[in-house]
Amino acid sequence: MIRQFLTVLFFATVYAVIRYAGFANVSPIHIPVYLLNKGISMTAAFSLLMAALGLIRAQRDVFDFWRKACMNLVFIHVIMSLAVFNKGYFPKWFAGDMMTLTGELTLLMGALGVYCFWRLLTFEMKPHIRRIMMTSASALVAGHLFVMGYDGWLQVQKWNGGLPPITLLSFLLVVSSLALFVSISDKHESFFSDNGRVLASKIESL
Fold first, then answer.
1. Cα–Cα distance between 173 and 12 in angstroms, integer?
2. Residue 113 and residue 93 in contact, taking contact as beta carbons nearer than 8 Å
């Protein structure tokens, strides 16, 4: 699974570099943070879907690995995003020195989604509550992506190099995950149990 994870991260990052550095005139000097962060965010969305599939298939190891991968990537994404959070990188989120409505809604949903992931990592909770938190996190991330990118999704003629926006691809992955989490039966809820221990103490390095 580690090899699969690294492969997805590699190709997601390559996709971001090709789309933005190759067709949108973004300088390659932004690969270490701005473009890599886009690859990380899409890999996090993919990891969430893989975790949901592992849960549906009752594959505990698969669920645990991809759940942890997703959560770790989410926190890395937040740190890297905050590092470049200004109107130079995200001009459409700002009007002068103030944020636009789109910018504030994007930030709000992202912050609430990250809060849900943080709760999942650091608090003990009953399986059905953990299920609700996981579903809520998926819904909030989907909202975060929708508000961020919906205005460009239907303008296919403006897609850089004819390549779909990363926000659209990530949105489809997250919505698929959300649909799976919502469809989970009661017999799968035990997979959300942490056996009475705080999950933060069990995080393994990828």
1. 13
2. no
